[in-house]
Each structure stands twice: as C-alpha cells, then as structure tokens.
Amino acid sequence: MFLSRPKRIDRTGDDRPVPNLAAFMWRMSGWYQVPACLLALVVAGLTVVPLDLQRRIIDDALKDGDADLLLTLALIYLGVITLGSAVKFLLRIYQGWLAESVIAYCRRHIIALHGKQPKGAGNGGTAVAIVNTELEAIGGFVGDGISDPLAQVGVLVAVVTYMVAVEPMIALVSLAFLGPQIVLIPLIQRKINQYVERRVDLVRSLSDGVAEPEEGEDAVMRVDHDVRRIFGNRMRLLLWKFLGKSLLNFLNAAAPLMVLAFGGWMVVEGRTEVGVVVAFISGFNRMAEPLRDLINYYRTYAQTDVKHDKVARWMDDRV
User: Fold this and answer.
1) Which of 27, 46, 104, 278 has its CA 20 to 30 A from that of 261?
2) Within 13 Å and on the Cβ side, how many CA atoms surround 212?
C-alpha cells in the first residue's frame, strides 16, 4: 500500500536546483499528479449535483406533494454527498503522501549538501531553518499544488455553467460581484509577497545568530534588532492580508443577497420558481469556498515561490 512507504524519487546526479517552483513540482512528482487530478475532477463534478436536486425537491416533489419523489431525491442526495466525502478523503490522503514523500527526500538532500561544507563555514542556522521550516512549505505544496486548483476551478465552472443554463439573468447579475475580486487580489498579493521575501531573510539572519552566537553587547543588540524587524514585518503583512480577506468576505456575502433580491423579484413576477432561487443561493455559497481557496492558492504559490528561490540560491552556493 502506498501509505506504508514514501514515493521513490530518483537522483539525477546533478545537485543543482531546478529554476522555479513549477519545475520543482514536476521534478518531484511528475505523472504521480495524474491520480490526484482525476480525483479532483470527480470532486468538482459531484459538487453541482446537489444544486439540481435541491431545485427538484422544492419545485417538483414539495410543490406537487409527491412523497415518493421526495424520498427518492433525498436518497440520491445522501448518496451523492457520501460519495463526494469519500472521494475527497482519498484525494487528501494521496496529496499528503505525495507531500511528505517530497519533504523527506528534500531533507535528506539538504542535510547531505550541508554536511559537505567545511567545519565552521557558517550559515548553520540557515540550514536548520531550511530543514525545519522552509521545506515544509515547499515540499508540502507539491502534494496539492496542481490537483487543488484544478478541483476549485472545476467547481466554479460547473456551478456557473449550471446557473447560467437554468436562469441566465439571475446568474449574470449576481456574478458581477466576482469581477472585483479578480482585480483586487493580485494587487494586494504583490504587496504581501514583498513582506514574505523580506521575512525569510530576517528569519535566516536571526537563525544564524542563534546557531553561531557571538558574545558581547553588540551581538545582543543585533539579535534584538532582528526580532523587532521581524515583528514589524509580520504586522505589516497581516495588515494587507486581513484587508484582502475583509474585502472578499464583503463581496462573497453580497452575491447571495443579490440572488435573493433579484431572484425574489422574478418569483413575484412569475418569471421563475422558488426552487431556482434556493438552488442559486446554495450555489453561491458553494462557490465562495473554492473562490476563497483559489485566492489562497495564488497567495500560497507566490509565497512558496519566494521560499523556493531562496533555498535554490542557498543550494547554488554549495554545489
């Protein structure tokens, strides 16, 4: 069973790092990403099925008082969400196995490179920071870095397609709230990336000072200065991060309100059914999570790419 041992990653004989995060992901996982992507597509496909079942329960079973149809649709609904949970569980386990396999391989590789350096060469704290912290983020990203965004995009495409097919007017009016998110997030993320890159440098500097301590008041002052700069950097990063989250939460909450208002008006005018409005509200709630996850993915990819670049530079100096 694949859980009993890590994925085998063959050495190429060339210890030089790959040029970027995307190349690193392919080098570490390659075609092992295919099962994860297939499971992700199944998860995305199963997400849209409950929306139509909700609409049919309200507009067909309840409206006509058909108890048999209600029971049948409810059992189908239960089966779909059970299957979706099982597939998602398998996906997470497989992603975790890929990630931990990569982390284990990279730790051995980094430790081997550092062991080749002469005693007292310095930067021991940087090696410790890479092995203990930075590789967790870089290697862990390999596990879900391809299949997760695929699943999230799949969910968004499936839900939007369903909504446009069922009631285009409500869908198009409500989707207008998604546009500003596409513009705002990259702008905010660029600012966050600057603080992430600076934080990596500051933490490494502090780690070197702890791993190879110097005596004297000047050394103490340098450590205190680094700690203060890390704190200030982190607070500025959090300011931009939570500003972005607040804007997204507002826009995600406003979209279902638009469905309720505009869709409710269409129901009053006799242009649509109540079940359509209920399904659309549920649809936007389902879209909020993958949209938020995609934004987090973009943020995580950018931050992980910065960390990979830092580790690659460290490796270049030792190959």
Assistant:
1) 46
2) 13
Q: What pLDDT band is residue 72 in, cutting at 50, 70 and 90?
A: very high
Q: Which residue has the tokens 């790419």?
A: 305
User: Residue 308: helix, strand or coil by DSSP?
Assistant: helix
Average confidence score pLDDT of the chain: 78
Please, what sign has the CA dihedral across residues 42, 47, 51, 54? positive
Q: Where are the domains of the chain?
A: 2-8+17-316
CA 202 to chain centre: 25
Amino acid in position 258: M
Average pLDDT of span 152-165: 85
Q: How far apart are CA 98 and CA 90, in angstroms?
A: 12
**Residue 22: how many CA atoms within 13 Å on its side-chain side?**
1
Of the candidates 136, 106, 100, 105, the one whose C-alpha atom is nearest the C-alpha of residue 2 is: 100
Q: Are 278 and 207 in contact (CB under 8 A)?
A: no
Residue 43: partners with Cβ closer than 8 Å, 6 or more residues away: 84, 87, 88, 91, 151, 154, 155
- Sequence-distant (6+) residues with CB within 8 A of 76 are 53
Architecture (CATH level 2) of domain 2-8+17-316: Up-down Bundle (1.20)
- Give, for 265, the enclosing helix (H) or strand (E): helix 217-268
Report whether pLDDT(305) > 60: yes
Residue 213: partners with Cβ closer than 8 Å, 6 or more residues away: 219
Helix spans in 66-214 (H)? 67-115, 124-129, 135-144, 147-166, 168-175, 179-211
Q: Are 144 and 67 in contact (CB under 8 A)?
A: no
